[in-house]
Amino acid sequence: MIENELIKVVFDGNYEIVSVYDKEAEREVLCENKTGNRLELYEDYPKNHDAWDIDDYYKQKMWSCNQVENVEKTANGLKVTRKYCNSLIVQEILLNKNSKRIDFVTDIDWYEDHVLLKAVFPVDIRTTKATYDIQFGNVERPTHRNTSWEQAKFEVCGHKWADMSEDDYGVSILNDCKYGYSVYENDFAITLLIALPINTRSSRLHLLKLLHGRIRMRTKGITALHILYILIQETSNQEKQLKKGISLICLLKLRLSENKTEHCLTAILLFHAIMKILL
What are the phi and psi torsion angles at 98 (to 5°)? Predict the structure, then answer.
């Protein structure tokens, strides 16, 4: 368990989250009898464009990544190492003082092919739509599959954040470099990776996409070099999410640019200051 003045996070034996209790709002954030930060793996064989497409039948075969290899206590939380076949997923789960934000700093050393990996959070939020950040605003998509049009929206593109909210309470996922989300009923998920063999033309094109997301290809497997934050926190409106998303991206760009030129750092800090004034 990790806890601060505002929320309490409880884990099960596999170090998946069984409870996130908001002390201030006096309510449970996760659905009953379900676990959060659930790492799910799916067989990924799309009909076309192996490195790019996700077809709607991918959920027919699913495995859980719940083999815990090691757990360490850190100053602000836990560091959990999981193994799936030949691959490792290392997550630092952090909760800072006076914050309703849970950080998941994730490093992945991946060696499997034709696998799609998601992190799933079953949130106790009553809503028929989710909101996703895009380049010039946000877009809403349904959380149900009542029509063929809605069924086609099983995976949604988004930038800095995605949000599920009631009128006065909500939960959001923010990140610095992943652009795929899925919401079905109460299951709120972010797509972490798609893995495929590297000896195909499609995978060579995919390599450019991976490098753009700061992921490095090795002789075997891929290693995530970026810092990935998945953030869950209370929200009452989308303006708050926009502010926090911009702050997050600026912070991560600053970290990743520490060894680059001073001009790059200055530009990022200036951008951050301007956006704080505008918002």
Answer: 55, 40
Identify the residue whose tokens are 């502010």.
243
Spatial CA neighbour of 44 closest among 190, 202, 195: 195
- Residue 29, CB half-sphere, CA atoms under 13 Å: how many? 32
The token duo for 241 is 């999410």
Task: Please say if the pLDDT value at position 188 is more than 60.
Answer: yes
DSSP-H helix ranges across 98-179: 148-151
Answer yes or no: are the C-beta atoms of 16 and 66 closer than 8 Å: yes
Closest-CA residue to 85 (of 151, 120, 22, 41): 41
∠ at Cα 234 (229, 240), nearest 5°? 80
Please tell me the pTM assigned to this model. 0.74
Query: CB of 193 within 8 A of CB of 116?
Result: yes
How many angstroms separate the CA atoms of 69 and 82, rounded?
5
The secondary structure of residue 37, as a DSSP letter, is S
Residue 108 confidence class, pLDDT cut points 50, 70, 90: confident
Residue length of the chain: 279
Element (H, E) at 98: none
Phi first, then psi, for residue 20 (nearest 5°) are -125, 105
By the 8 A CB rule, do 14 and 82 touch?
no
Kindly report which listed range (5-9, 46-50, 232-236) carries the lowest average pLDDT score. Answer: 232-236
Band (pLDDT 50/70/90 cuts) for residue 195 is confident
Q: How far, in Å, are 30, 49, 87, 200 from residue 187 at the CA level?
A: 10, 27, 25, 34
